[in-house]
Amino acid sequence: ALAESYPPQCGGVIVELADLRPDSVVALQSPDDPAIAASSWTDYVAGVTGDEADGVLTNVVLTDPIARSESDGLVVRIADLGLTATEPFTLPIDARNITDDDTTLTFTSGQRVEFTLSDDSGEVYRWSEGMMFTQAIETAELPAGSVYGTTLTGEPIGVAPGTYLAKAWITAAEAANVVVEWETTVE
User: Fold this and answer.
1) Whole-number Å distance between alpha carbons of 66 and 50
2) Whose CA is closest to 182, among 81, 52, 104, 109?
3) 3-state helix, strand, coil in the chain (%, to 5)
4) Residue 50 — φ and ψ, nearest 5°?
5) CA–CA dist 182, 28 (Å, integer)
6) b vs e for 133-152, b when ≥16 Cβ sit within 10 Å of the residue's Cβ?
7) If DSSP codes are grouped into helix, strand and coil, which group holds residue 48?
8) What CA–CA distance (Å, rounded) separates 57 from 54?
9) Over pLDDT 90: what percentage of the chain?
10) Fewer CB atoms inside 10 A, N or C side of the chain?
């Protein structure tokens, strides 16, 4: 559990992840303040395995499947944490600027991410359906090598259990060609 301070503090047992590469974690957040920059966190429970000894986990491997797509100098990644028809869901997503130049992400509304599920009959779920978003142009600076991440949450999706084609993307104009597609199972 995390305390809601800034940066979030651990509320229980602390296990050091000795060899986890921070850039391997989708939507990892860190403060801009160098005085507290050693702290990093996610808005979701990231699954890991490894070898534990004396409160230190080594040979760390992320257990959540990660889907990715790359285009126009951006890599977009999704951590598939699993979906059920009856429980709220969490979908971490991030975009990394893999160029040597700074870029700006331009959003034409308050919507930052879209997520859909399709089967053989076509689209059966769209996260934004029935929602309203602010209508303002906003930007997010994305320096070379940096990451823009967020965690999409939603109410139960209400589709029948089965296998679906999932698609997710950052809604910024600069990321329009970077749609992540993966096969997922709804339980």
Assistant:
1) 18
2) 81
3) 5, 45, 50
4) 170, -170
5) 21
6) eeeeeeebebeeeebbbbbb
7) strand
8) 8
9) 59
10) N
70-129 pLDDT, tens digit each: 998 999 999 999 999 999 999 999 999 999 999 999 999 999 999 999 999 999 999 999
Which two three-digit tokens encode residue 146?
């940096």
The answer to whether residues 28 and 37 touch, using CB atoms and an 8 Å cutoff, is no
Q: Which residues of 16-49 are buried (b: 16+ CB within 10 A; e: fewer)?
A: eeeebeeeebbbbbeeeeeeeeeeebbbbebeee
Which residue, 169, 149, 154, is CA-closest to 40? 149
Model-level pTM? 0.84
Confidence at 1, pLDDT banded by 50, 70, 90: low
Cβ–Cβ under 8 Å, residues 154 and 83: no
Q: Which tokens sit at 51?
A: 């070898």
HEC per residue, 49-86: EEEEECCEEEEEEECCCEEEEEECCEEEEEECCCECCC
Q: Find where tokens 């509320």 sit.
A: 11
N-to-C CA span, the chain: 26
